[in-house]
What we know:
The complex is a heterodimer of chains A (295) and B (423).
Chain A: H1 2-32, H2 39-56, H3 59-82, H4 90-112, E1 117-118, E2 128-131, E3 134-137, H5 138-160, H6 162-172, H7 174-179, H8 184-209, E4 212-213, H9 219-232, H10 237-256, H11 267-281
Antiparallel strand pairs in A: 1-4, 2-3
Helix pairs in contact in A: 1-5, 1-8, 1-9, 1-10, 2-3, 2-4, 2-8, 2-9, 3-8, 5-6, 6-8, 9-10, 9-11, 10-11
Chain B: H1 2-20, H2 32-52, E1 62-69, H3 76-92, E2 95-98, E3 101-111, H4 119-128, E4 133-135, H5 140-153, E5 157-159, E6 174-176, H6 181-196, E7 200-206, H7 210-225, E8 229-235, H8 243-252, E9 256-258, H9 263-276, E10 282-284, H10 291-297, E11 304-308, H11 316-327, H12 330-335, H13 344-363, H14 368-374, E12 380-382, E13 385-387, E14 399-406, E15 411-419
Parallel strand pairs in B: 1-3, 1-4, 4-5, 5-6, 7-8, 7-9, 9-10, 10-11
Antiparallel strand pairs in B: 2-3, 11-14, 12-13, 14-15
Helix pairs in contact in B: 3-13, 4-5, 6-7, 9-10, 13-14
Amino acid sequence: MEYIISVLLSGVSVGGQYALIAIGYTLVYGILRLINFAHGDVFMVAGLMGIYLAAVLPITLSLPLVIILTVLLGFAIERVAYKPLREAPRMSVMISAIGVSYLLQNTATYVTGGQPMTYPTIPFLSGTVDVAGTQTKWVVIITPILVLALVFALTQLINRTKVGMAMRAVSKDFETSRLMGIKINSVISVTFIIGSALAGIGSILFFTNYPAITPMSGAMPGLKAFVAAVFGGIGSIPGAVIGAFIIGIAETIIKGLPSSWDVSVFSDAFTFALLIIILVFKPQGLFGEAATDKV
Amino acid sequence: MKKILACLMTGVMAFSLVACSTTPPATGGTDAAGGQAAEGSAEAGGATDGAAADSAAAAGDTIRIGVFEPSTGDSASGGKKETLGMQFANSETPTVEVGGKTYNVELVMADNGSSADKAPSAASELVGKNVSLVLGSYGSGVSMAGGPKFEEAGLAAIGVTCTNPNVTAGNDYYFRICFLDNFQADVLANFAMEKFSAKKAYCLGENGNEYDQGLVAFFTQVFEGAGGEVISDSFPTNNSDFTSYLNKAKSEGVDVIFTPVSIAYAKQIMEQAASLGIDIPFLGSDTLDDNMVLEATKDTNLQLYVSTFYQEGGSETFDKGIKDYINNNSDAMTANGGNDTISAVTAMGYDAYYVALEAIKAAGSGDKAAIKAAIPSVKWDGVSGSIAFNEVGDAVRDTAYIKTADTANGTWAFEKVQSGSGK
């Protein structure tokens, strides 16, 4: 029983962290129809900024600063690497995204020298707590709650505010909303800002839990969050969150199965097999809108 | 939705393309690959400076020793520490006398990127630079991947801490100065049974990593042979959540946890084990003998025991020399992880350099074929013990150091000198 709880706890917390990254993918896809491959690396860079800032500033200052700098990074990437390609074929933008991803990874290798870096301990979040006889970190409990709160706030923003309305309009029809006087570029910037802020928050939660950062740390969570977004229906926020929780929990359950079954090694394979299955049988994902051909 | 599929497919293709092409113009800025190359040559440049400082040798009379080590990737931190030992030895003895003539010794670096894909090209790079022999690598997988290139070129390589048996088996040109994985696993299994009377062990290694899997297999063989029970798991590359595995070990009620993994993973495992409050003793292989892993155990209740090649205090002169070298050189300090704790791999790198010099002396020239022929007869009393080679090209060793993490002080404490079961 204790063991089942501990596995579920890990699963929910892994899922919550994937969810924060997956929202970034799904928002950008919804607006730009672009899979922002650099998103996972923005998340990794946010983690590294956390390390370097916490070394010189008190933690209360460095954490908000991490989020602000991550937002600036996301904003700058969009302006430098994607905006000039707005009229170019979608493939060019995607290649540009992959380029940014490599640039961030290699810059991180250069800066850190390829050595794993240790994330600072954050008071309270890093503290341990007993849940039904299982010891775990506070961050594990807080992550899913925070994710749900952020998703709630985000859906309110999208459904109730003017910016949100503009975002919905742009995602429905890019050209028409531009003709209707919506400032496309600022809507896109807002999207990147929200996505990056969530990646920044996600990095704080993720690396508090798994405190070693290497330049490749963003690649795997990023890829899995992407699968989560596709699974839930890319473009849909609740879909991305639910997809992320399903993948996180399924993955930890597979890892936690008895070793004699010899299946724990397939935890990653499961995630990507899921991607193939969903693309074959329900390409729009769990909550995605079915693509309708306009005549 | 076909578009998404198409996009994904092209995404995959584009990934491989981008890997070899330049970054798109919009991203501009520093080309990181170029940055690495610059870093690499800066290191090599540093080594040359050290050699050039000795005015006794005439310019142009240089023997080049290739350093085949990872300075990027998962094993970068180990590779850098091993290289550090060689650089220190090179700064101490930058020349070698052959046939009454003094030659400068230059270290030529090649980064094998901790990856079996990149290792062959790094090996070819060294072959192309006309080195006389090669030292390295940290990590058995890359050594095995690079080995055939050295063999083709007729270039001898001396493995420093690559412990997998397949590095030297079947390759006449690969030698090594460290003990082997089967010996190491044997030692650790015996230690587990002697010290903890262990009956049940949990093994965790990275999937597809020959080093991890080799050790787990040998450990299982010895441990089960002695009547114990072993449960083992493999985690996928780039995995970051180990709590499921650790909780499983805990719920299975094992006596010891054996984790022969690379440093980055070991660090994660220790940190997560601490947060889960796991009090089962951890056994680690030589990779875990690292400052970063040690740091992760500081101020925790973890018990960590590792088998290794060298323990600080083994040679006073070496300890003092390397500490001075690290403290007076900020690059060396960074490479060593920001403190002056001596890693066993640094001591091994140091010994490897002297073995290489002995081989050059015995060969009587910088000719690679002559050096290859001379290596098997080389004997050297190094700081990590006496070194001689057997017919396969492996070092003859019969004991390993076991040390434990002193979690209160954040240092390694010597536990015992352990021998194997003798099988």
